[in-house]
Design brief:
- The chain is α/β, with parallel strands linked by helices.
- Helices cover about 25% and strands about 25% of the residues.
- The strands form 4 sheets. It has a 6-stranded parallel sheet with strand order 5-2-7-8-1-9, with helices on both faces. It has a 3-stranded mixed sheet with strand order 3-4-6. Strands 13-12-14 form a 3-stranded antiparallel sheet, with no helix packed on it.
- α5 (about 130-140) links the parallel β7 and β8.
- The longest helix has 14 residues, at about 20-30.
């Protein structure tokens, strides 16, 4: 079996830029190398259920474990490392039923007869400020991490992780933590040019700057270039990197 050095990778960008597809392609590579891995998704994202999905047609979905917090993710990884057989037996009760279409189930990705080597985390921006500490523990335990998510919110600012105590971190910190960084672009839905920002629309109009940062499934989101990205009431926007 090929060796897998412990490392961290992140794929980030606006809506519809292929971020989840990166995780799906990574899962296929891990399967070919016969490495045991687990997939996770924040419970806050209810759009696609507990599956990592791509908008690419014919793309396989990955069954994922729902986590409410970074510590929740760490607890599951600890269980998988310490009692792999027990954890494997519990997987059907922890995961949502398989969706329609081509689905890669957790019981095909996690092997109780070999060490857990990697974890995939989708929509990582919805987790909390304990994330970096948890990722460090995961890697110290010999598990590589592959992340994907929006880097910026609808205002064009780095997406803030949920605050815990005095910790105030954003996706800028998560990107900085990772050893390998892959920035993806989409196509602006206004002009077709490369897009690095995400537009939120409310009743067809740009959302006000003071709207809640996280609104899942209630609004319309579009990739936009800087020329066509608008936020009502914003005096300035952080420049997209």
């Amino acid at each position: 079996m090929p060796e897998l050095s412990v490392h961290s990778e992140i794929c980030y960008g606006p809506m519809k830029s292929g971020k989840s597809l990166f995780l799906i392609e990574t899962s296929q590579q891990l399967l070919k190398q016969h490495h045991s891995f687990l997939s996770f998704k924040p419970v806050q994202d209810t759009r696609d259920g507990h599956f990592i999905r791509s908008r690419q047609p014919q793309s396989q979905h990955i069954q994922a474990l729902a986590v409410a917090s970074s510590q929740d993710l760490w607890r599951m990884i600890q269980q998988a490392l310490q009692t792999p057989r027990t954890f494997f037996d519990k997987l059907p009760s922890l995961a949502s039923p398989s969706a329609t279409g081509s689905v890669l189930p957790l019981r095909q990705t996690f092997r109780c007869d070999s060490a857990l080597r990697a974890c995939l985390i989708d929509e990582v921006f919805l987790l909390d400020a304990e994330l970096l500490k948890v990722l460090q523990r995961v890697m110290q335990a010999g598990v590589s991490v592959y992340l994907s998510g929006l880097d910026r919110d609808f205002r064009g600012e780095y997406f803030p992780l949920r605050q815990l105590g005095q910790d105030m971190l954003s996706m800028e910190d998560v990107i900085g933590f990772c050893q390998k960084k892959m920035a993806r672009e989409a196509r602006c839905e206004s002009c077709g040019q490369p897009a690095t920002l995400t537009q939120r629309l409310i009743n067809g109009q740009p959302a006000p700057y003071d709207s809640p940062t996280v609104l899942i499934g209630d609004e319309e989101y579009q990739p936009r270039c800087s020329a066509h990205h608008q936020v009502l009431g914003a005096s300035h926007l952080s420049a997209a990197s």
